[in-house]
Amino acid sequence: MPERNVVTWNAMISGYLRNGDTRSASLVFEEMQGKTQVTWSQIRCGFVRNGDIVTARRLFDEVLRELKDVLIWTVMVDGYARIGEMEAVRFRIVWCSLCEKCNWQC
């Protein structure tokens, strides 16, 4: 691909994830420079939808503090809810609301 930008990188990651190819999505994600909130949410959501909450959580922990917003938190809440981890959901909702009150600097 002659011109690579955040849109083309995100499109590649999304395509791999939609087809269940988390390995290729991870390789593209790791190679990508300038990851955005959309990129971080997309990769984690893809792992959640492919049943890998452990990797999604690891990626959540890697997200820069200043990029954690309601979308980033919502993907984790959704992931834990999908696998029936309601205690984790409850914890994330409380933590998310606390972070919202302090401008996402938690």
TrEMBL record:
Mapped PPR repeat ranges: 5-35
Matches recorded under InterPro entries: PPR_At4g14850-like_plant, PPR_rpt, TPR-like_helical_dom_sf
Pfam family, one: PPR
Keywords: Repeat
Lineage top rank: taxon: Eukaryota
NCBIfam families: PPR (TIGR00756)
UniProt protein name: Pentatricopeptide repeat-containing protein
